[in-house]
Write a structure and sequence with these properties.
Strands 2-3-1-4-5 form a five-stranded mixed β-sheet, sandwiched between helices. By secondary structure, it is α+β, with helices and mostly antiparallel strands. The chain has 13 helices and five strands. Bound molecules: 3'-deoxy-guanosine-5'-triphosphate and magnesium ion (MG). The site of 3'-deoxy-guanosine-5'-triphosphate has 17 residues, from strand 1, helix 10 and helix 11. 3'-deoxy-guanosine-5'-triphosphate (GH3) binds next to strand 1, helix 10 and helix 11.
Length: about 425
Amino acid sequence: MRSTLQTIKKISPLQAIIFTGTISILSIIAGTVGFFVTQHHVVEQVEKKQACYLDLVDFRGKLIEFDLSKDPKQSIKANPHSEILLSTYKKLLDQMHDAELQPVVSRDTAKGNWRVLLAGENLDFFRLELEKNIEQAKIQSKAATVRLAVVNEFFLYFILAVLLTLSITAGWLLHNNYRQTLIPLSQLVGQLKLLNRNIPESIHDTAEEMKKELTDTEHSSDITQITKSIMNFCGDIEAKNKKLDEIYIRDEKTNLYNYRHFKEHLIIEVERAKRMSDKVALAMIDIDHFKQYNDANGHIAGDRALKILADIIRGQCRAYDVPSRFGGDEFALLFPKTGIATAHDIVERLRHLISTAPFLHGEHQSIEPLTVSIGLAGFPGDATDWYNLINNADRALYTAKSLGRNNVANFSPIATQNSHQG
Ligand code: GH3
Ligand code: MG
């Protein structure tokens, strides 16, 4: 029972209408054919019975005529009319059988003693027999006529019943279609309009909410399909958006953050530090003599070195630091909520790690081992805004270079601090 209901629910309104329409048309065709066959048979019976009745009445007239013309001196046998009369009666009995009437017959009639029938007092019995048969033909003929009317009436009711069933089914389907398709569809359209007007943080979560909302209301299988498609579509968009977000903020070669993302965060962090009276440190890292490295090993090896260097930088960062590729062979490392001393320790460790990295002394070894120079500046100590902070970290980098490279230099407006000589 439940599985039948589930199957019915799975049928789309269009399928249901086609199914009901086909059943109704087939019923009407079958009913009409049945009606015409039955009607033809009943009409035939009515005609036969009426013909029988009329013929019997006609025969009664002939019998009266015969009675009047009877010559008492002449024997029945000699009367020429008696032969005709008897043979007509025989035919009438056959006709009654053919019209499905059960003729009342006397013993002599049954035995075929025809000549005795019209003789003497037998004639009265014969008249009685005839009257009974006329009466029977009359009653049966009337009954057949009534049957014909019943058949006609029945057919009319049948057609009305089919049309009523069809109307009720169509009404029910329309109502269901409205409740299970149109209402959820308009809800879905409303949600999609909202989604379109205000793209949410997570399209997937919004789609999940839509699905939950729809689950609470009864809906057709079409709506389930549409919802599933929208869910899949939203899932795809979400995945692609995530990918796009990553592409938008990542540097392709090193997979570090790109300049766009770095600048965005630098501005945010400097503003936050201003508001909260906090600190921010920025390190600018530049590869020493990278041009020579490229010339000696080729640009592909240079790219590989950039990638390895980026991995080492990322490895030294904390979760909230922002390691970025500034451009070319230059990297920027943003340390939110960090003072210059802590940042110095981190980049010093980084500088040392890079200078001793195994790859750089491996088969693609450059003319000199690959090292980096690092300039460091802090907010609010060394700069008044984000732009100033980059400039001053860059100036510190210049100092580190001028001190012979493979160095970390803190920004100083007067003198450059040399923290390490490599
Ligand atoms: P130094 O910084 O120590 O003064 O010397 P340098 O040779 O590194 O000089 P500079 O920073 O001016 O040169 C940057 C070089 O970095 C030039 C270019 O060949 C190389 N470079 C920049 N971007 C890429 C890159 O994406 N891939 C590769 N392989 N090399 C790059
Ligand atoms: Mg360089």
